[in-house]
């Protein structure tokens, strides 16, 4: 589930753009790479993937990413939900709006991803940030260890 609704993406000014930035807090810092939107008049058009990749014409995604890459000279983080590459997934009994939003375009995702691979270059977040992969792997190992559940005592 997205944390930002379509209405929020389209209507709220603070969701325009998507430039990566650093957030510093007393507990530490993170680098946020938000989902990009492209401003067209009063609207913020989502171009970073997910349902928008399935529901909008592919040309909108391609145009938006090219615009960010050239005008802003910035990378775009693109995402898909794992279920979006399974057009044969079981269909749930849901209302018409949810059915349209969830199932429309599933049969086009793999073909569209093939087009994206041909149309754009890809890289890792570590390379974009200029962080060594050893550093990233060490952090992943540390985070994975911290996330392990405590052993059950019997």
Q: What's the number of helices?
A: 7
Rounded mean pLDDT score: 80
Largest sheet: 2 strands, antiparallel
Based on CA inertia axes, which overall geometry fits?
Answer: globular
Which stretches are poorly predicted, pLDDT < 50 over at least 5 residues?
A: 9-16, 147-154
Structural class comes to: alpha+beta
Assembly state of the chains shown: single chain
Question: Count of DSSP E strands?
Answer: 4
Rg, alpha carbons: 18 Å
Order of helices and strands: HEEEEHHHHHH
Measure the end-to-end span. Answer: 37 Å
Strand order of the largest sheet: 1-2
Task: Estimate percent helicity.
Answer: 40-55%
- Indicate the proportion of strand residues: 5-15%
Question: Can you put this structure into words, describing what you see?
Answer:
By secondary structure, this protein is of the alpha+beta class. 42% of the residues lie in helices and 12% in strands. It has helices at 6-11, 51-55, 58-72, 96-103, 109-119, 125-129, 133-147, and strands at residues 21-25, 28-32, 37-40, 43-46. Strands 1-2 form a two-stranded antiparallel ribbon. A two-stranded antiparallel ribbon has the order 3-4. It is globular, with a radius of gyration of 18 Å.
